[in-house]
Queue: 2 jobs
Job 1
Amino acid sequence: MAANTWGELFRVTTFGESHGAAIGAVVDGCPPGLELSEADIQPFLDRRKPGQNRFTTARREADSVKILSGVFEGKTTGTPIGLLIENTDQRSKDYGDIKDKFRPGHADYTYAHKYGVRDYRGGGRSSARETAMRVAAGAIAQKYLVEKFGIKFHAGVVQIGPHCTDPGQPDFAWQHVASDPLFCPDRTMSEAAQEYLKQLLKDGDSVGARVRLEVTGVPVGLGEPVFDRLDADLAKALMSINAVKAVSIGDGFAVAGQRGSEHRDALTPKGFASNHAGGVLGGISSGQPIIAEVAFKPTSSITIAGETIDIRGETSSIVTRGRHDPCVGIRGVPVVEAMAALVIMDHWLRQRAQNGDVHACVPNIEL
Amino acid sequence: MAANTWGELFRVTTFGESHGAAIGAVVDGCPPGLELSEADIQPFLDRRKPGQNRFTTARREADSVKILSGVFEGKTTGTPIGLLIENTDQRSKDYGDIKDKFRPGHADYTYAHKYGVRDYRGGGRSSARETAMRVAAGAIAQKYLVEKFGIKFHAGVVQIGPHCTDPGQPDFAWQHVASDPLFCPDRTMSEAAQEYLKQLLKDGDSVGARVRLEVTGVPVGLGEPVFDRLDADLAKALMSINAVKAVSIGDGFAVAGQRGSEHRDALTPKGFASNHAGGVLGGISSGQPIIAEVAFKPTSSITIAGETIDIRGETSSIVTRGRHDPCVGIRGVPVVEAMAALVIMDHWLRQRAQNGDVHACVPNIEL
Amino acid sequence: MAANTWGELFRVTTFGESHGAAIGAVVDGCPPGLELSEADIQPFLDRRKPGQNRFTTARREADSVKILSGVFEGKTTGTPIGLLIENTDQRSKDYGDIKDKFRPGHADYTYAHKYGVRDYRGGGRSSARETAMRVAAGAIAQKYLVEKFGIKFHAGVVQIGPHCTDPGQPDFAWQHVASDPLFCPDRTMSEAAQEYLKQLLKDGDSVGARVRLEVTGVPVGLGEPVFDRLDADLAKALMSINAVKAVSIGDGFAVAGQRGSEHRDALTPKGFASNHAGGVLGGISSGQPIIAEVAFKPTSSITIAGETIDIRGETSSIVTRGRHDPCVGIRGVPVVEAMAALVIMDHWLRQRAQNGDVHACVPNIEL
Amino acid sequence: MAANTWGELFRVTTFGESHGAAIGAVVDGCPPGLELSEADIQPFLDRRKPGQNRFTTARREADSVKILSGVFEGKTTGTPIGLLIENTDQRSKDYGDIKDKFRPGHADYTYAHKYGVRDYRGGGRSSARETAMRVAAGAIAQKYLVEKFGIKFHAGVVQIGPHCTDPGQPDFAWQHVASDPLFCPDRTMSEAAQEYLKQLLKDGDSVGARVRLEVTGVPVGLGEPVFDRLDADLAKALMSINAVKAVSIGDGFAVAGQRGSEHRDALTPKGFASNHAGGVLGGISSGQPIIAEVAFKPTSSITIAGETIDIRGETSSIVTRGRHDPCVGIRGVPVVEAMAALVIMDHWLRQRAQNGDVHACVPNIEL
């Protein structure tokens, strides 16, 4: 039972609380011989690091990762890779006043009931801080996958409150994400959303977001029917990210309104004629780009007073001071890429176990 | 690596192909002392059984389940429960003509590439026939959960093509599902959808559907952060059902447009004031009803000719004769309930393992 | 938690009680393309089948296995292989008189306390009958391993009570096992042991046995440090066989008396100079023959009255009528081979997952 | 696939190499509310710490453990417990000369073939240094088990080369172990063995050892048939310890020579009349003391030159300088206790999952 472990063959176990001494991860099952150093991982962590701009929490964390094991003379050895990030900026006093109250929309209430005790400092284990280790582990998977198959992961914010975009829009371009303060692939949407967020900050409120993922270069044949389908594991991986409330593959919820003659992707000698399926058929990758979208709820940590109860069950009111993101979906972008990488890495190893290397050579059919 | 096994503590392993000798399942980890017989499981299977009405495939399967082990003198013994259903109505000749072609929208292409061989008869392992064993195993979980906690599972079709409903509609009532030919909780929507399906059958086409799930009576504290969150496992369980392309919890994708002040559910001494979260906070059940929705794609098996390629990669055209549902989402309803039951059963045992029985006694807070 | 499942990648799940309707297994993870039919499995089952000679239980079971899924047109498809054996000769009345008593040396007492209920007919799930499915699953693994690597499994009885042998004895020869009624590789020992067993049958008593295993052709590199070492998994696999009380690798307990200068196996350009290690170094196969020994306890089902208590805790006496082996170790031989095959098959797939096919090509160094 | 993880519900994942920056572990699944601090773990580490006396390696390691997560205000929270020990005394130059040679009896050869690369410094991951984290994790399990059930773990060296003892000996007393330099329960044997070891050190040789384990206070009902039997998991746990080559339960290999009338333990209203079974029946704990023995091979790191080959396959000779134990079995004692604690802890949680707390209350029957 691996509550804090992801994966069957490429296994990532994370530990650590928001305001503990450190957070860390153990990556078990990484193939040997992969060139790896902290410098390969740090850039991924820097992307999700807090304090990057006015739209992310002011909390300052160096988030500098250390590799404690599994790498020798610059290469992975096949033994578990220990990763550690020390927590440096912990202002626990920010949280003392909520020690005895359950913040609405947070895990305080459920953790208290489940475990009988809870580390109330910044949400403890339930803090999104844990996702830093997912990003660190995902960076290793992404490095392996790009070197082995040329697999590329693109994720970006395609909706913030009333502002949204899609690949059909004139200004939509994945390469824009890297330089955009909102990790948005559409400059026009981004500018409108930034104005919206400035007002939101004045209001002391927060907003949700929708993130789109596209993965290219995935070979045909990844995914294990019937339960461990590639899309099923992807759904779990993405839904396991803090604040995510919905996951879709390909056309997603729109398929409920489609006809079979409209949805099915025709096959031609040159490849598929369309990609309504989102790159997965019968739970197995088809060689087309894998397309998914996820919805992030607005953070409940806002400065607008909220009605709640205290641990004695008495009515109370709460204002979350602390330092928080007005839109947690923004920093969720690298986490979405990381989880997708962990899923695909794990399934590649599973495919190789049962079917051998040869099947990985199947030409990746795309238009 | 349990591709054909669901669960950590309440483990269900299924096997069998659409046109093989039989399909079966092994349920491992069921607590001893549960009164159980075939009569407790059969009604659940009868709900998803084909040939129930004009809107489901004409294939006739008795789908009568046999318990081969794990039950002694009418009670479970704690040893694995073997379940078997023999395939009786297999018209393999229906499939001979597609032996060398990949049906668009089906798993033919991906299975062929992944495994190098495939059982083309009715989709073999990729056929939704496999879900019969999920329903059989889910029936055991549902019996345990209703007796232990009074947990109730409600699922129903809330959208078919252009026709949809929601709990706010005047005719929406869960009790209507049992008697409705489309497993729809809204008579008005059902009648309109039935007219729509009749025309669809004439056209030889199919359509997608959206199914809503509500689970009541779930105790507080089920779910294992950080990866095995209750909602994450629910997302995987539902996405693993054939034809499902999207899963949402609570307000789902709508949260991308919400503000924190609007989304967070206030806590009062009498319970939560709303349920935008859908019964899960931080991946742990809150005691509120668990609410989820899933989208089923339209089946690709239609009598309208489709463009495809054969195993030599040459262009071809295909018409799926066989016998199929115009809307697979309808018969997906009992499968959705079954998978939800497997997830909750598994997490209840995990909760008991780490926290003991006492935590299950936490009063179930609801408005 | 897979109490009734063996393996990580080549997974075998068994079910069924001694006197239930049937026993069965699901083999999940078998590579596709392996030629397989019942005829490949049956001979292995026939070896352990009861009623073969005067030294094994008189119970008559056809033990004819059926493949229910996972094989199409004579080849495995990569989907789970369902195996079933119907129980034909069940004389439950033999057991009615022990319904309320705990047979000493049996699992009656522990099952009753653990589960609160127990299927007392022939020991129910605790009966060695379950091992028939291990042999069936092991047969599939052995077929794959001999075809892929030429791996050969040799097991035989090397001790029965006071009579024993070892590879140094003049009459010791593995090929003798197949034709020997005691599965003994040494004709001289076998004849003496047969006389001993005849007297034992007259006495209504039973005796223990020691079984030796040698596996040749295993490539270098199988085994996953640190916990899933090849020898550790072998130890678990063998200790999980009914009645086994001890497992040793290579020189086994004798190493406690050895010096380092005597134990370590020197390496030469032509290979290892000796094999005190038993083919495993650091938990990884060395390419030498894997050598293990196991001890089977004498069955407690004998006709000599034994002191015990009934379910009310009152003192009582019991005589096991039923039909039993005087030496269960004999029929344990094919089970030992089967479990070794499951371990090696699983580790081969794990090796391929992490290190790819290439590492399997490492020349197998042997003297 | 959890090569570096032990357990299903009480999961311990270890990482780290002998001469890396640090070694660590993540303990996932520990019940919340257990009082825990470094001071509870350190004494267990100090027992196996090198440099304790002339009979253990001169390597000096503070081995001071840090708890990085999972504990808040002195109590476990139910979230993963991160443990870290920094490596302080690494003399890598000791190993430079064996960089290109395979030490006979070590894992150098198998690691090199399996992974293609190896950290040759002190054996890297294959070093027994890894067992420090097993002891740290085991300390947590032991604290929980003694507080919950009063379970006590006794292990001691009962054989070193030609010198041995057993519980029947006049000087045999478990309480002697704590003060004995060889962790031997028999002063007479210890004194003789110490003289033997002094000579061995002069010879630059090493010797094997046999360690006996007795666990008292284990409730009836722990263990999961059929594969995850308590004795099977114990066998794997103990065989997974570096240098262990054999494991026995109860009478062990002696059962091969016993008769059923002699072996079976009679049940009386006051409990079992004997314990040939070693506290396990049908893979489930009987409530009697659990008795096991393991054999440790002599370390191959000795100053007597050994024949070997280098990485080019050419013949060579090697002398292990480094700093090593003449008898690794001595420091194996706390590791044996730790692994037994991990097995029992895991099975207790598994028992509670399936059967609930009530079954833990079953009176623990002992003479």
Note: The CA atoms of residues 19 and 264 of chain D lie 49 Å apart.
Job 2
Amino acid sequence: MTTTKISTDLIQQENHRRQDWLQQDYQALAEKLQRQHIDITTVTAQAQTLQVALPSWGVGTGGTRFARFPGIGEPRNIFEKLDDCSVIQQLGRMTPNISLHIPWDKPDDPTELKQYAEALGLGFDAMNSNTFQDQANQGLSYKYGSLTHTRAEVRQLAIAHNIEVIELGRQLGSKALTVWIGDGSNFPGQQHFSLAFGRYLESAGQIYQALPSDWNMLLEHKMFEPAFYSTVIQDWGSSYLAAKETGERCRCLVDLGHHAPNVNIEMIVSRLAQFGKLGGFHFNDSKYGDDDLDSGSINPYQLFLVFNELVDIQGNMPSFSPFYMLDQSHNVTDPIESLIYSAAEVQRAYIKALLVDRTALSQYQDNNDPLMAQATLKAAYNLDVEPILQMARMQSGGAIDPIACYRASAYRQQCARQRPTDKHATGSGII
Amino acid sequence: MTTTKISTDLIQQENHRRQDWLQQDYQALAEKLQRQHIDITTVTAQAQTLQVALPSWGVGTGGTRFARFPGIGEPRNIFEKLDDCSVIQQLGRMTPNISLHIPWDKPDDPTELKQYAEALGLGFDAMNSNTFQDQANQGLSYKYGSLTHTRAEVRQLAIAHNIEVIELGRQLGSKALTVWIGDGSNFPGQQHFSLAFGRYLESAGQIYQALPSDWNMLLEHKMFEPAFYSTVIQDWGSSYLAAKETGERCRCLVDLGHHAPNVNIEMIVSRLAQFGKLGGFHFNDSKYGDDDLDSGSINPYQLFLVFNELVDIQGNMPSFSPFYMLDQSHNVTDPIESLIYSAAEVQRAYIKALLVDRTALSQYQDNNDPLMAQATLKAAYNLDVEPILQMARMQSGGAIDPIACYRASAYRQQCARQRPTDKHATGSGII
Amino acid sequence: MTTTKISTDLIQQENHRRQDWLQQDYQALAEKLQRQHIDITTVTAQAQTLQVALPSWGVGTGGTRFARFPGIGEPRNIFEKLDDCSVIQQLGRMTPNISLHIPWDKPDDPTELKQYAEALGLGFDAMNSNTFQDQANQGLSYKYGSLTHTRAEVRQLAIAHNIEVIELGRQLGSKALTVWIGDGSNFPGQQHFSLAFGRYLESAGQIYQALPSDWNMLLEHKMFEPAFYSTVIQDWGSSYLAAKETGERCRCLVDLGHHAPNVNIEMIVSRLAQFGKLGGFHFNDSKYGDDDLDSGSINPYQLFLVFNELVDIQGNMPSFSPFYMLDQSHNVTDPIESLIYSAAEVQRAYIKALLVDRTALSQYQDNNDPLMAQATLKAAYNLDVEPILQMARMQSGGAIDPIACYRASAYRQQCARQRPTDKHATGSGII
Amino acid sequence: MTTTKISTDLIQQENHRRQDWLQQDYQALAEKLQRQHIDITTVTAQAQTLQVALPSWGVGTGGTRFARFPGIGEPRNIFEKLDDCSVIQQLGRMTPNISLHIPWDKPDDPTELKQYAEALGLGFDAMNSNTFQDQANQGLSYKYGSLTHTRAEVRQLAIAHNIEVIELGRQLGSKALTVWIGDGSNFPGQQHFSLAFGRYLESAGQIYQALPSDWNMLLEHKMFEPAFYSTVIQDWGSSYLAAKETGERCRCLVDLGHHAPNVNIEMIVSRLAQFGKLGGFHFNDSKYGDDDLDSGSINPYQLFLVFNELVDIQGNMPSFSPFYMLDQSHNVTDPIESLIYSAAEVQRAYIKALLVDRTALSQYQDNNDPLMAQATLKAAYNLDVEPILQMARMQSGGAIDPIACYRASAYRQQCARQRPTDKHATGSGII
């Protein structure tokens, strides 16, 4: 039986207060959708299938190079992180899997960790390696690169770490390795572009050799930061080439914040899928760069357009199943609240994308009727699908209003008492 | 009595078919809003007060420097443009005023033009001067600048043109002059920055002297294009300085597409209003630059955030009344359809901004509760306010579904028969 | 014998006045380079091998969607354009080949055109097709796409046009076809991304079938404009995929202005070359977008960094021989002057790249000494190589100071007398 | 007598080896400049007057939010930082003043610190306050703002800190306070724009009251980071308004990395100077955002264009004397080397700007001859002024090749022995 951190009685009480209005709104929306021959219960059921992984480090307060302002009651280790994740899952019902970051979350005993997670109703999503920081007693340094370092012994250290992460993930039940490196340069001339890329391909190939046959290897590109002149895997083009060269189960991971200004990300999603290389997502939002803001908080229509592609792709390729994760830096909010809220925003975008009249859209596209094509997207986007989100959660045992319920539970205050503040908490880095 | 281009019978028939569902949706939304103590009829009435001017040139098909692909039945003169504008107003009921562009729309007889407009139920909004193109037989050229040209005689020509536009506007009942210039440079070194800005201030001052006491002069800034290295009024900072130096009724006009990538436009709106210099808007949307795409088609949340500021400002300053205009380039759609649809998108953003719970928002801001502050904005944004838009239109005599009604009217096909295609139609330039 | 538009006597006189100083500067630089064991005459000879094609349309004054301000004496047809190009080549000695644009430059008699060019000492570089504009009596329209249009007959029209351009190029002695399309969309939803890309691949494949075995097909990507929401070949990633799918001699063309803000273009150059797909360049410069400013006028160090890659690539692959062309819009200058000056800027970047101490650079890279690696680039960049440019020109029969010599020749004034101004000159569009 | 960290004998030896070539190059350049009637000794003397402050924190290795990779022998306190700064000054001769950051550099005894600096031949430039981090035992937190916090007691804490920094600076002989705050928001709705700006004006006004009559107060704007949706002083427009409202000696500080993509910074420089509000600079370079890369390492022409404005302004206003500082994050280089090299790059830009033929430029501008106007700038920019930099240093007692001399001194290795590595060194933050 699953251990719960929030009283199920409290959830029921909170839901009870909101249930009548939900029924009323859900019914009104059902009737409206019915006019378009859409069955709301089918959509609700589809919404319930969407799962987005939580990054273990996301439940700690994030920071910038300038400062980190910790909140109260922050988790001090991977077990407390799982506790917090379980609260998010209990209330929101769409985040049952956790993405670990090694060495930040490296357990002494993987079996113990797995059992702890299972008791909380949690499993493990993609594993994340870390060769962008030096670990104590590591000997060699990643200051000038890891998988692409000019020295073979540094590359070997980074390769071995990735293989170790795979092994650990295998014990935990994960099915994917996400590789993001900070390798690049800060000065023109510092790095030889093609030699560095060649070394990347060689290193990635060695890691791929260690990949279990039912695993995926996900390559994450990023335009800049921590390197500020060039990055080895800087964009989807380089990521595609690397995935293509590395192997069939090597695919590209799209982080919404890792692109040049103005870039049409939904088109990149389409391109990668068309060539069989779309592997997963890191959801967040941004206004200026890799801001790691909460998903949908800046440009919710873009998030919808991304899901519009995903639903379209899925329609043509039922086996399509990318890895989804929230990757946000919660600098000014309670991380649990941000993750609950953001997961729902992702689900909202998905539901709206499900409601697009694709037959009509397709006809408008074929007939070059751009106004009605976009109006078809907007017709779905402008709907208020909140009742579906609420109903999906309630039916799954979650909270109609998960933020209110969380606050009512005083979980954070309880943590504050049990977890003394630690200004140098591990795991504050954000990928 | 107003001349109508679309049969009022048709509008009624079309509305009749949609009225039951509208009533149902409107009622459901009314009940939902009632829970927050919001009276839907009050909101509907407020929505009906929003007016957005149509640019005369907007009813022609736009183009790029590469090509223009004209549509059928395009208007060939200002009278036909007014005809098209009247269709937009008849169906959408929020665009009764037209913004003229001189010399494109220069009438032989202003009185005749005014009467023609009045018969269509139309009036005139801000006047636009044009010193970014050379006119036939103009003598001097604006190739190297107009209001900031190094030669005094060219500046005088440009100043005189602006004064002439004011005089014409006075006869037509306009109350504002919008000044946008293409002056700037394509090469470092081409123009002396501070001398050019000094010349601008001097020229603007002379135009201001000719401004009637109940007029506003609106300065429009633009980061680049047609000048590609520097622009004299490049951003809101320069626009503010120029407006401040020029006079009290000289204010800044914000075109949503005229900013550097990533810039927070809603904050600029706030700054200009706080210092008494927010004069008006050119609504459109953009993904890459000054794309002049349809309002709300790319980032509808940004449009909402702009109106969130405007509603807030208006709450504190009831006399606040900026000039609103759609400024879009309709390259691939029927311009009439785009203008109807875009005006509604602007109205949608305004209605959602009206629904923001400002008391709650203010408390969350004061208490530094960013999650709930943003959730308060999103609560309003996520509502489906389409029933309010439809009801506002229907009650004002417009169409519940104006695009469908327009297509049913076959107005464009009728124009196609009456207006032979002219590949070099005037007025295809877009500010 | 080559027909010359500028008196060779004048060139000699002009050079004579400058020769002493040139010898003095050349000698001083020679001694300085000698310290690094670089022989200046070898570098000068290498500089003389660089050839950059002139676009036929570049000798006309460019414009923007707002206006075009023609200069005096503009060429009225392809023959006069060739005359102007010959002046550029005569004075600058690095632009003997012309890139034609069809249909703008379509000759009645290709043989006559070829002979006319040969008499001027000119040949033909890559041919450019045009499916981004509708031609009179074309029947079908490219308003909604060309090679990717949803209707097969429009695609066939565009394919046939490209094949016709190849055939014409074959008669003229060209060896490449450059394909740039304006296809894309202005609204989310207007175009189905993957279906459109699929149609592109199919169309490109058909064109490739018609390609002579000693030709290259160059695909030019562009992020936006004329389409403002999405472009079918939007970036190097899509261009690579298309070139890869199309065929071995299908390669990517990099226009320096066709990228998202901040993108590291020199790294794209490296990636494409590493995977055998770098086919050519359109040189220009930009501050904001696809500004088509004169090469090196905004960021000359970037141009140097691009050539730093090219020289490095050439060092490893002697057969590497991309197609180089200037692609600029001369809106405010005499196009002949801009082309002379820009070609020299390209040559300047090449010469500086030749002077990079690659052995030292390589060691600094291997040893992770970023400061000295960048200092090695800067050491070459900071040199004043003007004497090499001047000597290279003089030795080849050109002018030490080609702009001064051009102005002294009064060629433009002569053209003004012979070519009455035409405000609607063809060929003002810029790719 | 000044204490020196590098043996003066070593410097003389190193210079001796390079002196002949320097004389030769200097002489060749002198003759070349003489043709334009420029006296190289005058320019050399002017170059020697340029002073750029060193930030105390700049001598520590910087980092990103992901990691910091410390170098060996890093300074552990303000005294060791001054030691390092003295090395930079000894070799480069243009950085005699240090900009402190409080509380990072807060001395127990200001007099002792002042004497220590004086013994090293160093003085103090602008003081920097810090309200973007919480200090231990601070009680209240800046998590949600400092000078603009919604709670008055937090604002008072921040104001009091700034006043304390002024008092400390007064004791040290500083003449300016630089105020940069991280205040802003991460979510739409989090902060009320105009209320926050109003609070800023009030707080800044209180600080200004405490400003000595011969001091300047410098406001530094920044578009984003650490706040990622909005920043209170986000651009030069807001900075200007704040400086204008605050007082006559309150001016704007321009950090080259704190702008939106593509923005024309040299024009901002001109605008602020024209309206009497240009107070100072933070020099660095960037490719993507606030990258804090070494000055001139990415776009040296832009740095030249900035100095082109500064020299022009100075020509018209001899009293013009902004505060110059290097503000860079040295993540992959020895900070001492980066600061020596960058200071020289700033000087190089200044020297080239001095060499612009302003009479000719002005005529080309007046006559609208953009090609020759830009060619006039390029003529100066393309010169190799390295001999002037070297001569200016040598004549002032510095090193002809300061990097080589520094490496020969083995100063860093000596520090490594005397200063054990501390992975959590203070002062790694970068403004």
Note: DSSP finds 15 helices and eleven strands in chain B.
